[in-house]
Input
Amino acid sequence: MSRIAITCGLISLTAALSAARGVAVDRTVERTVAGLEASVQATWTRVPLRDWTTRVAALAGKPMILDRRIDPDRLVTRTARGEPLIDVIRAVAKEAGATVEELPNAILLAPANASGRAAAAADDRDRRLAAFPASQRKPLVKSENWNWPAGARPRDLVAAALADAGLAVEGLESIPHDHFPAADLPPLPLAERLDLVLAHFDLRILWSAERGRPTGRIVAIDAGISPRSPARPTAPRRPAAPPSRTVTLRDEFTLRLEAPLDQALAALAGRLGLELDLDRASLAARGIAPGEIVRAEVEKASRDRLLDAVLQPVGLQWKIEGERLRVFAAEPAQSE
Output
């Protein structure tokens, strides 16, 4: 949902989910999985990074993990005009001082100085587990949901997950004391879930199958990584085949409006990425002043409903022609 507040001809925008900060325009993601290579048409304005990653994850079809060292309140303002989703994610991450780690079943936004570590560690982990006997590999690759409330301690989360699986790991005391925000992860393999938590502290679990049951110890994230398993490159990908479709994000706005008509329309058109064409002559013919105060309030409105809410009460009509928003007063119907 997005929210727009217009008072006395001034517009301010902030994320609707952070109402204390003001108001925001954001185009919410379609409830469909497009994938990282999908071409995206979207605009985000002053959306907190924590909210942005949640919405983009729904489009990517993978959870996005925001490293605890990246500011979750940083505001994202960006327009995507058909570029692949993964390129949009990389651009936003770069602006936030982060790097994108594409993991087997998740996307991690990690500090720029940790580039490639989590991906290389995941490569090494998966290669080691592939060599385990099936019976020992089974509990580590079993996928389950994982969720926790705000304030959960990472050491407790790791210990509880291991206990549920009947596994033991050395070095739990090396996990620093901290409190995590609430999370709700989709089904992921146990070994990957644990490493996603530990990556926040540049740690991982090094697993062994030597004792008849998998055991592990917590080590530095880059410990034991073979030179044959280097960090994945962070440079832009080579051009891929054209995506099969373009994903356009759906508008949903909440509007609270009290402002002069012409100023309100100019502001709204700008936020919608349109050029305003206000037919002042037709307004004058109907006795409507451009400076007339208009008032409107709608919840979770589409773009069309948003414009109707502003214009219908004053007897105006609108059309969108290409990138132009035309607003006019229709001629009165002639009586028969």
About this structure: The radius of gyration is 26 Å. The first strand starts at residue 2 and ends at 7.
